[in-house]
UniProtKB/TrEMBL annotation:
One of its GO terms (cellular component) is membrane. It comes from Pandion haliaetus. The lineage of its organism: Eukaryota, Metazoa, Chordata, Craniata, Vertebrata. This is MFSD9 protein. The chain crosses the membrane at residues 62-89, 149-170, 238-257, 277-296, 317-339. The gene is Mfsd9. InterPro entries: MFS, MFS_dom, MFS_trans_sf, Sugar_transporter_CS, Tet-R_TetA/multi-R_MdtG-like.
Length: 427
């Protein structure tokens, strides 16, 4: 699963930076290009919850394969887009079904124990981030060739087809058998291992049974089940977790919203330096995903405490950036912010799954993606308003939002801690 996640973002990041240049070369105005980009974001906003819930019903294998193949179709159509209309049509299947990483995360949460989940999720994010770092470099080289954009789009479609083959080759049928054999072979081991094996086997068997039942349901029954599950999530007591995710997402987006322009206005550095600094932060984010294991062991697998401390550090670092008097303070804040944001993103997902339950992991991850999409829509508007007052306005506003998120976490401390204790006892 780490390899398809790497290839997924590698292929996408080859194409996405070149899309604005391509649509303008087709004769589209800035307004039309913006509308198409916004429509893609809106489709992602509404489809992520439905696709995630659908993966809970029909199973990860079929939903993941469907999303990969339909995304491949979208990038193939993009490679044939010689008019603005064809370009817009090519974004529809990608906008609706490009949730491959979310379903992969839901599959990982099905396969590993809750104790190991932050470590595995961190490595998964690190693998995909490496693809995001390398992709733009390769895409920039390919676009220099004749018809470079079309070639890049076709290569991206081929990468998705390769991912479909890799997912199809995963040992799906052996999963339950493997867990059962492992359980028999460990009867004489300590109670911790035996309990973990029983939990994994029960979870795997339950998810497999649900997938077999859901796959052969009629489409109308599947839609009704999806809507019922979404209603259950909407009426649950998870609102505070999703609100924390929204506030922290907007705070981080505000930090990066006018990063290049603010550095030029405040310190007189060129946009090229800002680009190098963002690439440096991305590389550190990959490293942060690899060190989550020691961090979770240090915190005795208390995800709530890790999230609270990482969010507090993020808030402090954004404040340091907003009040920085020299470029070296900006470099210092960017260095540690790469670690705190990567750890925070992983921990908020783990907390959602811990409190919400693994049986609806696809739905929970889909709702979380929708919440993040709302942040992407809201952040540019807030950034523009705050920037009217000062170049430091957006990050200062981000500090306020992060403080609100920290206060919400403190106010609900008892709920998080009680779930954390139950989680540890069950392991």
């Amino acid at each position: 699963l780490f390899l398809p996640s790497f290839q997924d973002l590698f292929g996408v990041s080859m194409v996405v930076p070149l899309m604005n240049l391509h649509i303008k070369s087709l004769g589209a105005s800035h307004t039309v290009a913006g509308i198409i980009g916004s429509l893609y974001g809106i489709m992602q906003l509404f489809s992520s919850t439905f696709v995630g819930c659908w993966s809970d019903i029909v199973g990860r294998r079929y939903s993941l394969l469907a999303c990969i193949l339909l995304s491949a179709l979208g990038y193939f159509l993009l490679g044939t887009s010689t008019t603005v209309f064809l370009f817009a049509i090519s974004r529809v299947p990608v906008g609706i079904f490009k949730h491959t990483l979310s379903i992969s995360k839901a599959l990982l949460s099905d396969l590993v124990s809750e104790r190991d989940r932050p470590l595995v999720m961190g490595r998964f994010n690190a693998a995909s981030s490496v693809g995001f770092i390398l992709g733009p470099v390769v895409g920039g080289y390919l676009t220099e060739l004749e018809d470079g954009f079309y070639q890049t789009s076709f290569i991206c479609a081929c990468i998705f087809l390769l991912n479909a083959g890799l997912v199809w080759m995963l040992p799906w049928s052996e999963e339950n058998t493997g867990n059962r054999e492992h359980k028999r072979g460990n009867k004489g081991t300590d109670s911790f291992s035996a309990k973990a094996n029983r939990d994994l086997h029960l979870k795997s068997a339950t998810n497999g049974a649900m997938a077999r039942d859901g796959l052969f349901q009629s489409p109308w029954i599947q839609v009704a089940t999806v809507l019922r599950r979404i209603k259950g999530i909407a009426c649950s007591d998870l609102w505070d977790i999703f609100l924390v995710r929204l506030l922290m997402s907007v705070a981080i987006l505000l930090y990066y919203s006018n990063f290049s322009l603010a550095l030029e206005e405040r310190f007189g550095v060129k946009p090229l330096f800002a680009g190098y600094l963002m690439s440096y932060s991305s590389a550190l984010g990959v490293l942060a995903g690899c060190v989550l294991g020691p961090i979770t062991r240090l915190y005795q697998h208390n995800t709530y405490r890790i999230l609270l401390h990482s969010s507090t550090l993020t808030c402090t670092l954004i404040l340091l950036y907003a009040s920085a008097l020299s470029i070296w303070m900006v470099i210092l804040s960017s260095t540690f912010l790469a670690f705190s944001t990567t750890i925070g993103r992983t921990c908020i997902i783990d907390l959602e799954l811990t409190i919400g339950g693994n049986e609806a992991s696809g739905t929970l991850l889909g709702v979380g993606q929708s919440v993040t999409s709302v942040g992407r829509i809201v952040a540019p508007l807030l950034s523009g308003i705050a920037q009217e007052f000062s170049p430091c306005g957006p990050p200062s506003l981000g500090v306020g939002l992060a403080l609100v998120a920290i206060l919400i976490m403190n106010a609900n401390k008892q709920k998080y801690c009680s779930h954390g204790n139950v989680k540890l006892k069950n392991q």
